[in-house]
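Hi all, posting the design record for the shared folder.

TITLE: backbone redesign
STEP: 1 of 1
STRUCTURE INPUT:
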């Protein structure tokens, strides 16, 4: 379990390094540039100072001891260079200190995040870590393996025990009463469903019967109307009033005219 937490911390450290790498690289590069510039100025001033000191003690180019004109001239060059470089040196020193502060702040932030994550990982060890730790320990210690197996079997037995007892034990008064209640409810539900089905069937039967009665009544009326009109046409034909042009028209002509006028078919004639 501790090993898993350690791996998590290492992964978090890698992520934090990737997160801060660009900032740290840029800050270090800027600091190195400032340090190089400051070192170059200090080296230049040191060389100028050594030059007039050597002239003063006789080890310089003139080989004459004492403060002579050449020594004074080199001293003046050194003083002028120092006066010119001193503001820049002060600025470089302040900038280097600022870069050091940024680096220190980034390191402190990184360390604080790392510490917080490590504390959180140790405080929030979940089921998966515990289960994996138990599995790793069981693979190394046989006693832990058998203890874990027995505990698992015991939990399974506790869970399925009531079901097994229910299956093994004979039916009791409670089971009979419960079955009776269930059968009563099922019977009532079936009766209700049967009544609903009979009511629906009766409604359909009444609807079709009424529809048939209306259809038969309409057919009778249509038949009576057809008979009435046919009788009128036959009476006109018999009296010779059916056609002003031809009083001796045949029955076939009468039937043809009736078919055309009333749109009758042979199977519709009564």
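Okay, here is what came back for every position:
SEQUENCE:
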């Amino acid at each position: 379990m501790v090993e898993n937490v350690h791996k998590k911390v290492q992964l978090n450290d890698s992520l934090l390094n990737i997160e801060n790498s660009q900032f740290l690289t840029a800050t270090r590069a800027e600091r190195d540039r400032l340090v190089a510039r400051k070192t170059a100025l200090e080296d230049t001033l040191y060389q100028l100072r050594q030059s007039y000191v050597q002239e003063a003690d006789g080890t310089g180019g003139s080989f004459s001891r004492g403060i002579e004109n050449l020594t004074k001239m080199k001293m003046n060059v050194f003083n002028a260079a120092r006066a010119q470089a001193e503001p820049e040196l002060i600025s470089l020193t302040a900038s280097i200190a600022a870069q050091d502060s940024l680096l220190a702040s980034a390191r402190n932030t990184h360390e604080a995040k790392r510490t917080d994550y490590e504390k959180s990982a140790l405080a929030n060890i979940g089921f998966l870590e515990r289960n994996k730790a138990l599995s790793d320990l069981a693979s190394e210690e046989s006693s832990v393996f058998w203890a874990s197996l027995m505990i698992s079997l015991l939990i399974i037995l506790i869970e399925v025990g009531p079901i097994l007892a229910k299956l093994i034990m004979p039916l009791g008064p409670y089971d009979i009463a419960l079955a009776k209640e269930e059968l009563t409810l099922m019977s009532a539900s079936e009766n209700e469903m049967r009544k609903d089905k009979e009511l629906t069937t009766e409604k359909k039967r009444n609807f079709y019967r009424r529809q048939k009665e209306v259809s038969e009544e309409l057919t009778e009326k249509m038949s009576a109307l057809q008979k009435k009109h046919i009788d009128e046409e036959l009476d006109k034909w018999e009296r010779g009033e059916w056609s002003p042009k031809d009083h001796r028209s045949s029955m076939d002509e009468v039937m043809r005219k009736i078919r055309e006028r009333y749109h009758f078919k042979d199977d519709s004639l009564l």
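COMMENT: Helices lie at 2-57, 69-123, 127-140, 142-168, 173-239, 251-262.
Let me know if anyone wants the other runs.
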